[in-house]
Structures are given as structure tokens and as C-alpha cells.
Amino acid sequence: xxxxxxxxxxxxxxxxxxxxxxxxxxxxxxxxxxxxxxxxxxxxxxxxxxxxxxxxxxxxxxxxxxxxxxxxxxxxxxxxxxxxxxxxxxxxxxxxxxxxxxxxxxxxxxxxxxxxxxx
Length: 119
Known about the structure:
Structural class: mainly beta
Number of helices: 0
Helix content: under 10%
Order of helices and strands: EEEEEEEEEEE
Low-confidence stretches: none
Distance between the termini: 40 Å
Shape: elongated
């Protein structure tokens, strides 16, 4: 059974930094795309960043130049480095991975981690 476990959320002041991690475990054959989404109170879930197996990345306009997504394939882990954080970045952040779990290719989600940007 594939599981994604997130860590690294918390409370940070505006202008500060946080790094989120997401590690996959279980019956993993290979991992294709990875990504991060977020959902703020009263808003729809939005895509923040993605990274493909070839290392190519995409970012939402609202985080370009401030956030960096990366992956460590040997550890089945992805990261989201968040710099120059703003109050509007406050949300629950969810990692996702497109995983070949030896029977099918499915999208898996992490449990979510709260990021709060406030003074």
C-alpha cells in the first residue's frame, strides 16, 4: 500500500522560509510526476508546482521566483522550498505523486500540512 507522508509545515513570519518534504513508501515501482497543491480557507485547491521525472518544473505565477520544487529519486521524496513567504501563502499544502505501484499508475496524495504566514 503506497503512502505519502508530509512534514515541515508550521508558523512563520512574513518574509521567512519553510521547506516541506513528502516521502513515499510502500509498493512503488517508479514515480513519474510529483507536485504540490494548496488550499486556503474558503478557496479551491490550487496547483503550486510540479516536477517531472526528467526534472522539468512548472510553477503557479503567484509563487514563481519564491518557491522551488525538487525531488530525490533514490529516497522517493520531493521537497518544496518556500522563501519570501507572504500571508497569502497561508494554506494547507498537499503533495501528490503519480506512481506506478506495480499494478497500475495512480495519483496519490499526502495528508496535508498547515503553513501559516503571520506576524
